[in-house]
Write a structure and sequence with these properties.
alpha/beta, Rossmann fold, five-stranded antiparallel beta sheet, binds adenosine-5'-triphosphate, binds magnesium ion
């Protein structure tokens, strides 16, 4: 009973969700037994090209069949009419009716989503306004820029007031300003709707999301809040800056518990990777006193999400070998 309630509390939930494309020798397990737990808010979905993100999304929205396992959207079976009603979906490569105007397209999508024409028009205008497309509402979509198309795509996904918005790379092909704009819109939307969004760009995910799931080769590599991930991956890099960096570098080169030490060209400071962090923290103050050196700084830099995922991916690839 408790288990059942748990499923309902998640915006997106899956158990051993699997997609196998093809049969026999040709069979490819594109998504392999993944357990998704997406809570309200903005949840990032990360992974390199071919990791299985689009395949997962397509199963969640009912665009392709599920090979094995199960998935629920707010407690409703993925692919069911009830689940489709609560989902808004922006595909990776949305297909528009390019000769329609932005406004007509939204009204049409609203009617498809079950709205009466008057309500569809009201909602379309509200969304055009929200996405700064009101002035372009009577222009054909074929004449929209990439950024405008991306925004009209998100607007179309929102027209029937979904509870869960699934966005497959909403910032792809956008310039930095366009990206920043779409990211802000997604952030603001999260007051009203839960968002499950994929992107290749970790700094974007860091700006938008509280939680992230990363997949690689169809399997979940890590799934947690960004806060927790950052807490558990502390850098083993130390940066030291004194008034005698060259001299310290020579001395540190001869210490057996230091695996790497060099002066970084960009900042002119000593970058140290120790095998034993405690010993390094003891050694540096002693060296400073003994050499009567002035200390400018000695610290461990905080890792970005990008650094952390590079590290996780490198480790996983090692294990595979
Ligand atoms: N219709 C299909 N038939 C056969 N294989 C497919 C099909 N669609 C995707 N694949 C394969 O499934 C794997 C996962 O692809 P998918 O598109 O889900 O990855 P992705 O994480 O979305 O990648 P990207 O970041 O490039 O969008 C890839 O190996 C891909 O070649
Ligand atoms: Mg994809």
């Amino acid at each position: 009973m408790i288990q059942k309630n748990l499923k309902i509390n998640y915006e997106v939930w899956s158990e051993r969700l699997t997609k196998i494309y093809g049969k026999g020798k040709e069979a490819l397990e594109a998504v392999s037994k993944i357990d998704l737990r997406v809570k309200p808010g903005v949840h990032g979905f990360l992974g390199p090209n071919g990791a299985g993100k689009t395949t997962t999304y397509n199963m969640l929205v009912g665009a392709i069949s599920i090979s094995e396992g199960k998935a629920k959207i707010r407690g409703k079976k993925a692919g069911s009419v009830a689940a489709k009603q609560v989902i808004g979906f922006l595909p990776q490569d949305p297909v528009f009716y390019e000769d329609m105007t932005g406004e007509d397209y939204l009204i049409y999508m609203g009617q498809l989503g079950g709205l009466k024409s008057k309500e569809a028009k009201r909602k379309a205008q509200e969304l055009l306004d929200y996405f700064d497309l009101f002035d372009a509402r009577n222009r054909e979509i074929s004449k929209y820029s990439s950024g405008m198309k991306q925004k009209i795509g998100i607007a179309a996904a929102l027209i029937h007031d979904p509870k869960v918005l699934i966005l497959d790379e909403p910032t792809a092909n956008l310039d930095p300003l366009g990206r920043a704009d779409v990211i802000k819109k997604i952030r603001d939307l999260s007051d009203k709707v839960s968002v499950f969004v994929s992107s290749h760009i970790l700094s974007e995910i860091e700006q938008m999301c509280e939680d992230v799931t990363m997949i690689n080769h169809g399997k979940i590599v890590i799934s947690d809040s960004i806060k927790n991930i950052k807490k558990s991956y502390v850098s083993n890099l130390y940066i030291l800056d004194t008034d005698m960096n060259e001299k310290f570098l020579e001395m540190l080169k001869n210490i057996d518990f230091i695996s790497k030490v060099r002066i970084e060209e960009i900042d002119g400071k000593i970058h140290i990777i120790p095998k034993d962090q405690d010993k390094l923290r003891e050694l540096i103050p002693q060296m400073l006193i003994k050499n009567k050196a002035t200390l400018y700084s000695f610290h461990q830099p905080e890792l970005s999400l990008q650094d952390i995922f590079m590290e996780i991916m490198a480790k996983k690839e090692d294990i595979k070998k």
